[in-house]
Amino acid sequence: MTKLLLLFLSHHFEQQTIGDNMTAIINQQIPEFTTEAFVNGEFKTISSEDTKGKWSIFMFYPHDFTFVCPTELEDMADHYEELKALGVEVYAVSTDSHFVHKAWHDSSPAIGKVKYPMLGDGTGKITRGFNIMIEDEHAALRGTFLVDPDGLIKVAEIHDLGIGRSAKDMIRKVKAAQYVRENDGEVCPAAWEAGQETLKPSLDLVGKI
To answer: Mean pLDDT in the chain?
Structure first.
């Protein structure tokens, strides 16, 4: 009975810890890092300092030379100019090195379209800092994080490895986050698109939606 109870408690606290960590990551500061990246044909050193004062998307994926991953990075590449116009920089991150990123970029038609930085995270420090490392595989979950100019995480989207993401929907979330930041006291309702009405929470609004 004691062993069963300990097993139950262990599982309970493990699940609670995961839930608490994912809840706590919203509005938390991104981890400090310095790493090497492959950026549009060049190797560059990129750090968390480079993200200050601008909007950023951190797009984690499991590994280079895989299957769902290139479709996601290509999808983001197809929307990169729109994101840049919104003042957003994109950072793709995996536990592969910047050298492997270059090899993948040179050999894959999909990845060849990528112009945004591809960060190497061989030690896993950045991936662990965002709490999405699969330790047994030394690989990241499909995690996408929208970070504001103050370095605070405003959106955290975590997918199982078999489920691909949509850059188009992330752009919608970027616009919503930027609107809320620039319009104090207003919030964006479900499926909000730029130009649509927002809400101003107040006592008069309670029970009328």
So the answer is: 90
